[in-house]
Description:
Immunoglobulin-like
Amino acid sequence: MPPTATPQPAPTVDFVVTKxxxxxxxxxxxxxxxxxxxxxxxxxxxxxxxxxxxxxxWDGGQEEIVSGSKAPGRAEFPLYGAYWAQIxxxxxxxxxxxxETRRIDSVYPDYADLIQAGYCTDEADCRxxxxxxxxxxxxxxxxxxxxxxx
Length: 150
């Protein structure tokens, strides 16, 4: 008897995080560049979704931004430390469930993120630059994407 495909469970949330990426030093306009969270919200086919509320939270506070406020499906938020983001509802009040991003930090990001974005070549290089205060403290930007699952 041939093997059968294992059924995959249906998504348990309305939106999943499909991308969390620190911008490279070139994309961020250097170390004195930006400190911005760039959010993109798309439907299941990858088309931009406007009017979706994204809650950005940090220790001690939160704020909401609306997709479509910067471009189709896009919103932006200034970063001054460590943050997390997730979809909460749309502008009509319809509630959504969503995965939450991992920690997004514009001041002290993880070395792995610094290496992936090209700020350091490896962990030793990051440690050396960190010790010499040659990193871009406070000036890291991030891109996140939320995709609707249905």
